[in-house]
Amino acid sequence: MSLPTRTPPQTPSYMRSTASSSSRKTPNPTTPPTTPTKKPKRPSSLTGHDRQIALLLGLQTSMSIKPAKPNLPHGFSTLPAEIRLQIYEQVIHTSTTLPISIDGDPKTRHPWLWPALLRVSRLIRHEFAYIFYTQGHFTFTMRSHLCFAGLQGWVNRLPPNHRLFLTRNPNLHIDLKVPAMRHFWWDTPAEIIDQDAWKECRPYGNMYAVAGCQHQEHFLSFCRLANWWLWCAKPIHNGIRWNYRFSKKVHYRPVEGMVGLLKEGIGSFALPCVRKEEKTSGKQKALMKKEALNILGDVDRAFGSYVPPRHHDAYAIITGDRRKEWEDKFAELVGVLEKW
Q: Checking DSSP bridges between strand 243-247 and strand 172-177, what pairing results, if any?
């Protein structure tokens, strides 16, 4: 007796492909397709200034200078980009120094902050901005007591790519006013501590918890410096090198003024009244350290221009023991910063 043959189970209808899907189905290839390997791009041999110039010259393919009145002669737009860049350099080098007065108001304007050439056309703005912000000699004069708000406001309003150009400029100078006397910055404390000073100090502590008007001045100095140092530590500003200079005008006792600047101004972060009330974290101090050492180094070099060397005949007459006092205080401040 033969056993009945078993028929294989049929695929349910809901699992079967329709005629439409079967017609669109591609047959399985016998060999997997091979994707052609792309040849790696050759890295550019241009770096730094040469690479940026090459990029600017490459903008000619996507941008052009369209004169407002084509029927008039417009020889500048027909010049090669290399010639235009040389003209921009002559404009910058003719204006050797661009003195800019910056006070506490971030809305301070100056014609050289935004030159007219930056507003002519898109291509000229790209070309001139690189030359202007990398080769221009800027001198920012601080009129207010260690207040960098105006300078910060100017840099913050620059386009991001123009701010990056500043990282290649070694000619950025900040001119700070040296006090005429050792223990007084200005004639009256009210010129330093205004009604909005507590807002500047709020991120770093309570200024009114500090006893004494003079100690409040010290705390305000620290808060303004801390805000500036943290701003310089931001990634977009971290590569900018600021050179600090110190005004010597109308100072009848310059050495006394420099000692006061070091102890009660730039070195305010080491004063007991400030260290007791300031609330900065260890992470913030680590970020502030770089720019703090930078300004300390510049003020030390400036003091060397005030004081003659030890072997000079006028050393004892002019300075007395001020040199030793300066060296001890400078070493103390550097030691405090190294622990941050």
A: parallel
